[in-house]
Design goal:
heterodimer; A: 537 residues; alpha/beta; 7-stranded antiparallel β-sheet; 6-stranded parallel β-sheet; 25% helix; globular; B: 176 residues; mainly alpha; 49% helix; 0% strand; elongated
Chain lengths: 537, 176
């Protein structure tokens, strides 16, 4: 029996539903759990706060595409949390997170990296059960199901990065991704209009619906209710196309349980609204990968919007508790304008100079390994909406400065005539310049530089220490027998790599635990194939 | 508290009327905040910016719907604070922000940018981000950047014969 996608904005009455499982969130973890629990024969309901992404009507068979028009502002407001304007509480970091069917999988740049091995080692010290060896079947399932491939159609940013790295004797490698027959529109970050990126709504959720799962979009969860050791109901309301409440409510009374998959800000927020704060443990130790960015200006036109965005990287600087990954991407006018920190004639000059002939590189910085630091906290504002209280840690400042220096060197070695560093005020580095000014940037003060993050982790940790543990090693929420947490909020530290594959893999593990608890079959279906696409892993 | 402050500043604000601000039905802005926003955008983007971004005010007003309500309120409050207090920071005599010349408004932006106070730097970044992002979302600005537009509207972008310009050293054909 095929399930369905119900758009909450169109629901005209209050509803009560009684599935076996209610999964909150349709991103990486929600999609995996929906499919595997549906495969096991459960009646599955997925609640997604964001909108559905239907197919464009009136197109011929074979020509169909999703209603994703690649226009940045329209897609940011449709597909991202807070219209892609989510900020940390002090305004210092822009937090880009998906809010649509498929969640982050719909808007990420398709990069597929495994969990960093030294991160897994650190997690074992903190009592987590995951090792490279026992994760193998989960990683293999993800790799073969999506599939994850090495797409070596490099755009100009990747080519310049490869060239610059080679001239510095830095090993730059192909970064595997989950695109298939990519059209190279470059629009992964605003949703692939051609279904060539294997995001949640193309794969996991699509297949879950084929097996009977029901998805409600435009459905914002208010709280969980219950007593003693069980959750008995999920209370939610529907929102309209502009994220305003429609006054229609949904109550879900799951007969088996609830799976939290709303992400590292959404999951703690719902738990906090439900008064399930575990004596102030929930929401704490939230981690990000702060991102520093450079744009090199080259003598020729670079067409920076087009091409596969994120398929070149180096892990030369990745090791250690504050290591960083250098990657490349594509960039568009609005994203560029939002990061320039410039006004007046200089704004337009920078946009003209660095857009038409620019190539981008950026660094994801690892955080979260120092137990003495507080890192971030998910809090609720006066309206009950989440905000992330996060300050850049002192330990990350020097690596963030050095990542900018390294990226500037790589650009200049590749032939850039100048490099734009998004400091406030902006900094342009030319060949022969010293890097002293970069090394003076104080990232601990908000708005001294543009800092993004696209990876939020932790806040509802799996951990051996009583004072930190929110989630048990079987993925159940502490003290609740029928509440599981399957998303990146369980990470005790930041990952040090793009987390999509790790979240998929751990969600598979969580789904297996749930199936075993209820004596239902869990099976791997995609274990065939050759070596994993990450050399040396 | 913030609501009381916002109401008081709103009552005190008398932004300069602009013929370019013609919108009458707003979701999040109102006539006063729309006029202040216009003055801010003019400082960030320059005189006549509305020619290439004719739906600037409508776009921002719509976009504000998607913001977290508390953050949206802070942005609107920042507009009112700018209008009613920032004029004090230059020249010695008070004139409200929207009544200043573009050059004077830019001097204020410079002061905000380099301020030692987090709040002031946040206001600078909010003003610049909103103005620049909305302006460069307009198709009419794209030729200045050499941006050819989005592929769903212009499929010819992706259907060029190889080598395609963003893969200059790769002669392989584009897959269907």
């Amino acid at each position: 029996m095929t399930g369905t996608v119900v758009e909450g904005r169109r629901v005209g009455e209050d509803r009560t539903l009684t599935p076996d499982f209610c999964i909150i969130g349709s991103g990486a973890a929600g999609g995996v759990c929906a499919l595997k629990l549906a495969e096991a024969g459960f009646d599955v309901l997925v609640l997604e706060e964001g909108p559905n992404i239907p197919k464009e009507p009136g197109r011929a068979p074979g020509q169909e595409r999703k209603m994703l028009n690649e226009r940045e502002v329209e897609m940011y407001k449709l597909l991202y949390q807070e219209g892609a304007t989510r900020l940390t509480k002090n305004g210092g970091v822009k937090v880009l997170q998906g809010r649509c069917l498929g969640g982050g999988t719909a808007v990420n740049w398709s990069a597929c990296l495994p969990p960093r091995l030294e991160t897994l080692d650190e997690w074992q010290k903190r009592g987590l059960p995951f090792t490279r060896q026992n994760l193998e079947p989960y990683l293999r399932e993800v790799v073969n199901y999506l599939p994850i491939v090495r797409n070596d159609k490099y755009n100009t940013s990747a080519e310049k990065f490869r060239l610059g790295c080679a001239r510095h004797d830095i090993s730059a490698e192909n970064l595997p991704n989950n695109t298939h027959n990519c059209r190279e529109c470059g629009s992964c970050g605003v949703g692939c209009p051609y279904d060539r990126k294997m995001s949640g709504f193309v794969k996991w959720l699509h297949d879950a619906v084929q097996l009977g799962a029901t998805i409600y979009t435009d459905t914002k969860v208010d709280r969980l209710t219950g007593s003693d050791d069980r959750i008995s109901a999920v209370e939610a309301h529907f929102i309209d196309g502009k994220t305003r409440p429609t006054k229609r409510k949904l109550v879900v009374k799951p007969t088996r349980g609830v799976v939290m998959a709303a992400g590292a800000i959404g999951t703690p927020a719902i738990l906090l609204r439900s008064k399930l704060d575990l004596d102030n443990r929930v929401g704490r130790f939230t981690h990000i990968h702060p991102v520093t960015i450079t744009i090199g200006k080259y003598p020729e036109k670079t067409f920076p919007a087009y091409g596969v965005p994120d398929n070149m990287w180096t892990q030369k600087f990745a090791s250690g508790p504050t290591g960083y990954l250098l990657e490349t991407g594509s960039f568009f006018p609005v994203l560029t304008a939002s990061a320039t920190l410039q006004h007046g004639d200089e704004l337009h000059r920078v946009m003209r100079d660095y857009y038409s002939t620019g190539a981008i590189s950026y660094a994801h910085h690892t955080t979260g390994f120092d137990d003495k630091e507080k890192y971030g906290t998910v809090e609720l504002d006066d309206n009950g909406d989440p905000e992330l209280n996060y300050r850049i840690q002192k330990a990350n400042v020097k690596p963030m400065q050095e990542s900018l220096v390294m990226m500037a060197r790589i650009h200049l070695a590749a032939g850039a005539t100048s490099v734009y560093v998004m400091r406030n005020p902006p900094l342009e580095i030319k060949p022969g310049d010293a890097f002293d000014e970069i090394r003076k940037i104080n990232f601990t003060e908000p708005q001294r530089a543009t800092i993004f993050t696209v990876h939020v982790m932790g806040g509802c940790q799996m951990h051996k220490e009583d004072k930190r543990r929110c989630v048990n090693n079987d993925f159940t929420f502490r003290g609740k027998k029928n509440l599981w947490v399957a998303d990146g909020s369980i990470f005790p530290t930041a990952l040090g790599a793009n987390p999509q594959v790790t979240i998929y893999s751990l969600a598979l593990w969580a789904a297996r635990e749930i199936c075993e608890r209820h004596q239902k079959p869990f099976q791997f279906n995609h274990q065939q194939g050759g070596p994993l696409p990450w050399p040396g892993y | 508290m913030a609501g009381i402050l916002s109401s008081a500043l709103h009552a005190a604000a008398h932004p300069k009327q602009r013929s370019e601000v013609t919108m009458v039905a707003f979701d999040c802005l109102d006539q006063k905040t729309a006029l202040i926003l216009f003055a801010v955008a003019e400082a960030v983007l320059g005189e006549g910016f509305i020619v290439k971004a004719p739906k600037f005010i409508e776009t921002v007003d719509d976009f504000l719907n998607y913001q977290r309500p508390a953050q949206r309120d802070q942005f609107l409050l920042a507009l009112l604070i700018a209008e009613t207090t920032f004029g004090l920071t230059i020249g010695g005599t008070f004139r409200s922000f929207s009544h200043l010349s573009i050059e004077e408004r830019r001097k204020i932006l410079e002061k905000l940018r380099s301020s030692s106070q987090e709040l002031r730097r946040n206001i600078y970044v909010a003003f610049v981000n909103v103005s620049a992002s909305t302006y460069y979302a307009s198709d009419l600005t794209w030729p200045d950047l050499g941006y050819a537009g989005v592929s769903v509207d212009h499929p010819e972008i992706l259907n060029q014969p190889p080598p395609i310009p963003w893969r200059p050293k790769d002669p392989r054909p584009i897959e269907p």
